[in-house]
Amino acid sequence: MKLQQQTFTIRPSQIKDAQALMNIDALVWTERTAPEPLCWPTREDFLLHCPPASQLVAEVDGVLCGYVGFRHPTNLAGNRHVYEIHIAVHPLYQREGVGTRMIRAAKQWAAQQGMRKLRLRVLSTNPGAVVFYRKCGFMEEGRLMDEYRIDGEFADEIWMSFFLEGTERAEKPD
């Protein structure tokens, strides 16, 4: 699939996107990419956890092909400068630049919202995703060793982050 020859747009999610987003979740979040497969019990449950505008969605010729979701990791005021993100691209559109474009848009969106940092979590059983995030400028901040048991094997949970342009990391005193 050649995206250069098609209409590609990124926009905030809308209520009408719920079923397509649920379908992508079911395809992407498997036992290799998540602690357990993600299948939403109902559309209402999905919308409760992922309300409209809590994601940026990517469309190719009007077909929803991926998303990046945002949320604050906690409800603490001192943590409101951080967005935790999660990204999923429909398998038919993977390795076509959709994810890279969505990460770029997510960085711009977060900066416009006054965020200083993006963070994400990825399983060690998903090395392709780890490489992708590194290519997008994310760095490993920490690792929870043997955090999950998946298919009889232990998997680490890797925490990665990206500091948004125009923000400086605070220097730690010696």
Automatic annotation (TrEMBL):
The keyword Phosphoprotein appears for this protein: no
SUPFAM superfamilies: Acyl-CoA N-acyltransferases (Nat)
PANTHER family associated with the record: AMINOALKYLPHOSPHONATE N-ACETYLTRANSFERASE-RELATED-RELATED
Name of this protein: GNAT family N-acetyltransferase
InterPro entries: Acyl_CoA_acyltransferase, Bact_Acetyltransf, GNAT_dom
Organism: Paenibacillus chibensis
Domain N-acetyltransferase intervals: 8-165
Database matches in PROSITE patterns: GNAT
Domain of life: Bacteria
Keyword Acyltransferase: yes
Pfam families listed in its UniProt record: Acetyltransf_1
Keywords: Acyltransferase, Transferase
Coiled coil: none
